Amino acid sequence: MEIHKNASSDKALPLGEGLGWVLKKNNEAFMNFLNLDYSYCTLPSKFYQLVKPTAFIKPELVFVNDGLLSELHISPKNHQEILALLLGNDSSFAQAYAGHQFGGFTKLGDGRAIVLGEYLTPLNQRFDIQLKGSGRTLYSRGGDGKATLRAMLREYLISEAMFHLKIPTSRSLAVAKTGDLVLRETDQEGAVVARIMKSHIRVGTFEYARQFGSTEDLQALTNYTIQRLYPEVLNEENPTLAFLKKVISAQIDLVVNWMRVGFIHGVMNTDNVAISGETFDYGPCAFMNAYHSETVFSSIDKNGRYAFGNQPNIIKWNMARFAESLLPILHSNLENALKLAQTCFNEFDQILAEKFYKMMLLKLGIEMQSQEGNILVNELLHLMENLKLDYTNTFLTLSNDMYEINSPMNEPEFQTWLEKWKKAIESSTSFEKARKLMTENNPAFIPRNHLVEEALESAVNGNFDLINQLLIVHRKPYNYQEDLKYFTTPPSEVFETRYATFCGT
Ligand code: AMP
Ligand code: MG
């Protein structure tokens, strides 16, 4: 099936119709402060299941993101209304999807999450409001549908930090304890997080449509997603091809942005790759301390599939799965569809490398791209790996021009590199301009794994001091302050080698 230029006007339903009006009606009595919409429910019914929210024993609010609420112009009368939101409503739905998990294809779906609806800001920006940890759904398979307080606080903290690091991400609105006990290695307190995203449609949603739906279903999902996230491609000759290119570009930008701050997502399965280009599902993610491209912390990633330096390869692999899903609607002839899809990958490596080096050079204060610049970057990465230098602090030191006496940066090989770098700056820009670029591109504060774990451990034991402090520090990650030096200190080597993250259960 070929997509025509005017596909939007004759095929895609306008957002917000279909089953939506029924759901809205159900919702009226529930939340007077939220304008919820249900455009997703204009899709064929195989894409979602209506869900009755689970009743919790003794829900209790833990965090409310007042800053985000006011940014979104959501004005509850009081926090009790936010608690009501975290308990769900009768109009909630769970999304169907599939995905490649560690390379293997599986049918999935929201097994412990529900979408409450879509919130429209006064400027008509549309955000899903989703609850995670909200109980079982028809897609739960053997799972309990629950989430632990520790994991939901982790999601809240890291997603806020990512937002302030200027990385597209889901954001957390609030966290509540459910009053339930959740059985993991030990009994733990259960919790729900409410999060927002431009959309939770993922690569896995398209894989689901391709594997378990008709071509019409796939077309409907594509039309809907284009209209919601990339309406600008509707004017292109082949909107599906243009859409594929847009998503690939957004994902390349995202991974390069992660690498700028040393972020390791940890579980880049295709069901965790958002078509919107936002980071989401903060399960076993972590931030790299000492630079090494093979750094991996996730306890389930035994072969380093999702290691720091492998993220670009994986996003290419994931985008290939996305392209395969779109084949039946890229062109009416499969051979031609394959050729079109292939054109998106011919230059993938080159584009990624260009964006990567551009980003790394900006970290070094250099705006102009050149072969010599790329060599400078490679040499620095080698040095950081060999000297076990902290990724964040190396760039911070370079931009602040403050070298510690005992730092391996005083080693002769590093000093040689330093001279080269200074010459490169002199020949292309001024140190003043370079410093400005470096300050904008190099965070002083990343969530340090050891501090995150310490904060979470204290929080689940009732002491929120450190997590609150971290939330404040990570609101201004690019503003170095000497009195906050504690938050820039890497963990001990012992912590680092033993540290393992678990899949956010
Ligand atoms: P994740 O690794 O969190 O992205 O989840 C992968 C899949 O497993 C998704 O379909 C989730 O809904 C499902 N899942 C994860 N944890 C649970 C749970 N405790 N109960 C039910 N489903 C779950
Ligand atoms: Mg997921």
Description:
By secondary structure, this protein is of the alpha+beta class. The chain has four domains: 3-204, no CATH class; 233-354, no CATH class; 365-441, no CATH class; 449-498, no CATH class. Helix content is 44%, strand content 13%. The chain has 18 helices and twelve strands. A six-stranded antiparallel beta sheet has the order 1-7-8-10-9-3, with helices on both faces. Strand 7 and strand 8 form a beta hairpin. The relative contact order is 0.11. The model is unreliable at 1-17 (pLDDT under 50). Residues 108-112, 140, 143-146, 267, 271-272, 281, 283, 503-505 line the site of adenosine monophosphate.
SSE map:
Layout: H1 7-10, H2 20-28, E1 36-37, E2 48-50, E3 60-64, H3 66-71, H4 79-86, E4 93-95, E5 98-101, E6 104-107, E7 113-120, E8 126-132, H5 149-164, E9 171-183, E10 187-197, H6 203-212, H7 215-229, H8 239-261, E11 263-264, E12 286-287, H9 311-330, H10 334-346, H11 348-363, H12 371-386, H13 391-400, H14 412-428, H15 431-441, H16 449-460, H17 465-473, H18 493-498
Antiparallel strand pairs: 1-7, 2-4, 3-9, 5-6, 7-8, 8-10, 9-10, 11-12
Bound molecules: adenosine monophosphate (AMP) and magnesium ion.
Residues 108-112, 140, 143-146, 267, 271-272, 281, 283, 503-505 line the site of adenosine monophosphate.
Largest sheet: 6 strands, antiparallel
The counted number of beta strands is 12
Bound molecules: adenosine monophosphate, magnesium ion
Report the average pLDDT across residues. 92
Distinct helical segment count: 18
How do the helices and strands follow one another from N- to C-terminus? Answer: HHEEEHHEEEEEHEEHHHEEHHHHHHHHHH
